[in-house]
Amino acid sequence: MALTLYVDTARWRAHHKHVQEQFPGLVPVCKGNGYGFGHERLAEEATRLGSDVLAVGTTYEAARIKDFFGGDLLVLTPYRRGEEPVPLPDRVIRSVSSVDGVYGLVGARVVIEVMSSMKRHGISAQELPQLHAAIENIRLEGFAIHLPLDRTDGSDAVEEVIGWMDHLRAARLPLHTMFVSHLKAEELHRLQQQFPQTRFRARIGTRLWLGDHEATEYRGAVLDVTRVAKGDRFGYRQQRAASDGFLVVVAGGTSHGVGLEAPKALHGVMPRAKGVARAGLATVNRNLSPFVWGGKQRWFAEPPHMQVSILFVPSDAPEPKVGEELVAHLRHTTTQFDRLVDR
């Protein structure tokens, strides 16, 4: 009995090919928990796509994945002097976001990140003249720019990249390769047309692995079902049942990521109102679970346990049976499955 990730493999891979066709020179990204699939599986899929470079989040991830992917590995987290050294093969490319960092990577293969409107990290336009001496002792693989997902000010992502291309050209720095993130296919095409001597390579993770929502599905197996009457006490905290129904023990708890939620940026009145309503219900121990039964998301009977969750299913719904599975609406990047089934 398990929390299972079911994958419609043919559909999933067809989506990968579609994205690859839209973004020539695509660099797949495999970081964190491997977007819910795991590093080993995504390394296999990147190899299947014929990718020559796979981007990872950290040097620790590079060390874990190096035995599963034979091409180059691009570490996205910028190098910092004094970081813990991790033994890595020469095919690992380091990102760097400061002039000092470039000087600290003598002999290494390096991608230099420039500061975008994200304002997260990157070299500023004013620092570019200092790079001439710094890049003499590294193997420069190109420059990179990480762009925001939303542009609430109405600005143009392409124009931002063009601005940086102009800065780099004015500083007489090599422009053979530019790694980009969060561009649309048509935006990448516009850039490639305007700068035919530069190879633009899109680093893509979410859109590649999770872009077809119908290709994957989580399901938790029902482990036990207990009938309760209104007023019956149950669980660790001995709460009372609010009505007649069933306590359903289902595979999937906090160790799987069930019950964990990343903060969301809410836009508009309705999403904010729903957020306020959820917070209000939580104060009286009413928390909606990700598990669906009888066409509805069901409430947690109590907070999820480490490996299972206990749901309350009212008596007017069909009684779940041990061994049946409940669909679970879970976020891939925070979920750890027990098993993955290709179908």
Short description:
This protein has 343 residues and is α/β, with parallel strands linked by helices. Helix content is 24%, strand content 28%. The model is unreliable at 272-284 (pLDDT under 50).
Description:
This protein is of the alpha/beta class. It contains nine helices and 18 strands. The protein has helices at 9-22, 39-48, 59-65, 99-103, 131-134, 157-170, 185-194, 206-209, 269-282, and strands at 3-7, 27-28, 53-56, 72-75, 92-96, 109-114, 139-146, 177-181, 199-204, 216-228, 233-234, 239-240, 245-251, 288-293, 296-300, 308-314, 325-328, 339-342. A hairpin with a 2-residue loop joins strand 14 and strand 15 (296-300). The longest helix has 14 residues, at 9-22. Mean pLDDT is 93; it is low at 272-284.
Low-confidence parts: 272-284
Biggest sheet features:
8 strands, parallel
Helix content: 10-25%
Arrangement of strands in the largest sheet: 2-9-8-7-6-5-4-3
Termini separation (Å)? Answer: 18 Å
SS-based structural class? alpha/beta
Write the H/E string, N to C.
Answer: EHEHEHEEHEHEHEHEHEEEEHEEEEE
Number of strands: 18
Number of helices: 9
Shape: elongated
Please outline the helices and strands.
Blueprint: E1 3-7, H1 9-22, E2 27-28, H2 39-48, E3 53-56, H3 59-65, E4 72-75, E5 92-96, H4 99-103, E6 109-114, H5 131-134, E7 139-146, H6 157-170, E8 177-181, H7 185-194, E9 199-204, H8 206-209, E10 216-228, E11 233-234, E12 239-240, E13 245-251, H9 269-282, E14 288-293, E15 296-300, E16 308-314, E17 325-328, E18 339-342
Parallel strand pairs: 1-18, 2-9, 3-4, 4-5, 5-6, 6-7, 7-8, 8-9
Antiparallel strand pairs: 1-10, 10-13, 10-17, 11-12, 13-16, 14-15, 14-17, 15-16
Helix pairs in contact: 6-7
